[in-house]
Amino acid sequence: MRRNRRHKSALRLLALVSIAPLALSALPAAAQAAPRSEIRLEAQSLSSALTRLGRQTRTEIVFNPALVRGRQAAALRGSYSVAEAIDRLIAGHGLRARPTSSGAFVIEAQAAPSARPQQTSAAAPVESEDSSGATEDGEVVVTGTLLRGVAPTGTNVENITREEVLASGATSANDLLAGMPQVGNFGTVPSGSGDISIPVVRPNIRNLGASGGTTTLVLMNGRRIVGAGVLQTSVDPSIIPPDMIERVEVVPDGGSAIYGSDAIGGVINFITRKRFDGIGANARYGFADDYQTVDGNLTVGKDWGNGSIYASYAYAWHDNILGIDRDYVRADHSGRGGQDLRSTTCALGNFITLNNGVSHAAPGLLPNTQNRCDATDYADVYPREERHAVFAGLTQQLSDSVDFQATAYWARRDTTRLNATPGFTGQILFTNPYFKPIAFQPIQQVAMSFASVFGESMESHARFDSWGVSPSLSIGLGDRWELRTEANYGHSFSQVREPTINATAATLALAGTTTATALNPYDPGATNPAVLAAIRDFENYGHADQELFQTRAILDGRLATIGGGDIRLAIGAEYFFEKLDSLVSLDRRNVFTNAIGSVSSRHAKSVFAEALIPLVGPGNSMPGLRAFQISGSIRHDSYDDVGGTTNPKIGFNYKPFDDLLIRGNYGTSFHAPSLADTTSLADARVQILLVSPLRAPGSPPTDFLRPTLVLAGGNPALKPEEAKTWSLGFDWTPKAVPGLVASATYYNVKFTDAISVPPVLLPVFFTDPGFSSFYTINPTLAQVRALVGNTPLNGAPSLESLYLGTSPYVLMDARRTNLGAIHVDGIDFNLAYLRETGFGSINASIAGTYTLNRKTQAVAGSAFDDNLKNGTGRLAFVAALGAKVGDFTARATLNHRSGYPIISATQNEVSAFDTVDLFFAYDLGGMLKDTMLTVNIDNVFDQDPPYLDSSVGYTNGFTLGRLVSFGVRTKF
Hints:
Blueprint: H1 3-18, E1 37-41, E2 44-45, H2 46-57, E3 61-62, H3 65-68, E4 72-73, E5 76-80, H4 82-90, E6 95-99, E7 105-109, E8 158-161, H5 162-168, H6 173-177, E9 216-220, E10 223-224, E11 245-251, H7 256-259, E12 266-272, E13 278-288, E14 291-303, E15 307-318, E16 321-322, E17 350-353, E18 358-361, E19 366-367, E20 380-382, E21 384-397, E22 402-420, E23 423-429, E24 443-449, H8 451-454, E25 457-478, E26 481-499, H9 503-510, H10 529-536, E27 539-562, E28 565-587, E29 596-616, E30 627-639, E31 643-657, E32 660-671, E33 685-689, E34 708-712, E35 721-732, E36 740-752, E37 755-756, H11 764-767, E38 775-777, H12 781-788, E39 793-794, E40 810-813, E41 817-818, E42 821-836, E43 840-857, E44 864-866, E45 875-885, E46 888-897, E47 900-901, E48 909-910, E49 913-923, E50 931-938, E51 963-971
Parallel strand pairs: 3-7, 9-12, 33-39, 34-40
Antiparallel strand pairs: 1-5, 2-4, 6-7, 8-11, 9-10, 11-12, 13-14, 13-51, 14-15, 15-21, 16-20, 17-18, 17-24, 18-19, 21-22, 22-25, 23-24, 25-26, 26-27, 27-28, 28-29, 29-30, 30-31, 31-32, 32-35, 33-34, 35-36, 36-42, 37-41, 38-40, 42-43, 43-44, 43-45, 45-46, 46-49, 47-48, 49-50, 50-51
């Protein structure tokens, strides 16, 4: 941060902390004692029994699926209060039920007895509505399985609870995911770029390839979300406001056997609230150096027992941060032994005499002088953003066996980004009336910027709208069978406007021969305003409409009963349709004469099945074999454009004793290339360079004067990316240490046919034999026509014109294509401890991932590179320590990204990045009912991200600086 601003931030921080007992967050309505009810439950899994009990008594019962996985509940019949019924179901399992102030119950590992209830985390207590996602008979369908009431076999499901969501201080779903060590942008503050190419943040579990779309499936309530963007179709998680999230379930395993395409690295499922009763509101304000943020939410709902309806509006806005506002963003590193990577296209230009290559800096034009400027100063490192979202939900029990649910949403994101005014290079002749001769040379090479006349920055604008509706119907068929039918429709509109300079107009102006038509590169402000207006009149424009429709039916239930329990089966079918209608124009503003429009769509039909077989259970367990179950799932997807694929998955759970669960799984997954990468023509073009600066070794210097043809854009010949994944792990909840939970998972991913762009700008493109099929040296006109076809040309009037008096040196195929592979394995770990005390509770945890090996292959057949030796860290974790004392809650969190070696002439290592966050909450229940104050302090010690000798100056993380936010949450 800038030192002259640090003291202001510190003073504001002290002022806020001093009034923390007067700030914000919400408590649910006071719980009322539940009446006794007639309970009838048969013997079944504990997960199923708890969810059925919640349904019968209209009570929310919240639990982590991993905590009850493999546990069984005895039959329960009679008249009980909810608390009594829960106690009987969980008896002997080392669990306890913690009541919340809303009347809900949280199932957690037992801790030492205490006089007051505790929480599962240091988060503030929050309103807890019934949003478990339970089906008709009350059984939750957990992410990663089709079966009700059970967790996915052999797989670790990580949960972010509502309490953790609100305590994180996240203002968007992207911020929330950036707190997970397994996600590629962990330790950053992700933001959508707002440009045409990749305008949204792509969550990327295991940090697998993303050039060809997403390898992590993002769902909302178990259903797909329509994509956003012009040249891509990835989901934008920022459409989901944090206050609408009930919980997030993350499966860091391949999931195509259940969900189909995209689930290679894993699945992220945002589960939104389903029920609400009353009026809830919250507001929050935050600030850092040269930065402010505001967000809020208002929810209104009614719950009438067998149904509920609600509507919620969320708003969020944050300021932008320029590179000049952060000391660590810079291009000149010569002071610390690095490179000076500042630009030479500056407001005060540089003029090179071509006979000797000597630079002359304006305004003096002395020989061997050069102007340099930092292009990062007036470009945003974090753009301004404004978001609106409306969510609504309806649930209704239509009969004893039929339930209906529907969720609808609308979201808008406006992103404003400042980009540095572009530089320009060209040649000026003595015929230009502004020409200033240097050393009697009649021609000069010009390197300049228009910042002095157009301003230091150009402001781009992007808007992303989306909406969707998802109804579902659950029908109980008896004998524990159920039919679930679902429909899902989504639509998005994206528009991007990026102003830039008209390079063609600037080139013509340099060649102008009168003051009315010529550009003055020595003093651009002296140029005719009409000439400058023509140069400024250019933008990169794009817009796109995307549609998604999905419908599926799932039948699941008990197939038979054996010694270990019920054999469960689920079968289903799905239909999926998506469409991309896009237009791209690189021209004068509002001129679309040469715009490229494209409409592409696809249909997919799928069938799938899953079975769970409990070979050993409570009925036939023995010492050393308390439980053992296996599962198998398989799915076939048939696309009308990329063909069909079948993906299986098998898993097992083994309990040698009650405290320990050992699990494992193996499966295959795939990602169907996106419409933007296959049949869409929006960015398809042949880029023609009139010279050939990139050539193969041994090429004579005269080849520089020959044209280069680069075929770019999508590729209809793309095939799906594929992966083989397996994992092995354990969950340990020792009865001897109540409140302790430990787990670890070894994972292994072999990702092949990764979609990317051939490295046409690197020397390896001509030296690695694996890329030889992507270029043709000295191509004939027939060869060019065969590959290019009717693709639009950029830089020449026709292909034939390139063969008049010369011929192209090389034809490069730089379209997106299936190239290489990624092999990665490592260990995910989690250790958590929760203990009640006489004053409340304390808790501590550490969770993260350690990479054992990560190797990448640039192109099939080439050698694998060891990324851990160049550019990849091994360890990422989050460690937390918290406590609850009466009505006060506090938590401190350490976020760690390890350093790593890099191969560079000026730097051999990148440092680790560590930040500390604080959270405080105070319940004002004694003064203001159902009202709470919260304070978040992110990056308490104002740490800058690690240094890198690059054009931006940092890597291995990003931060807004010390960010202090406070808010209020209430419900009535």
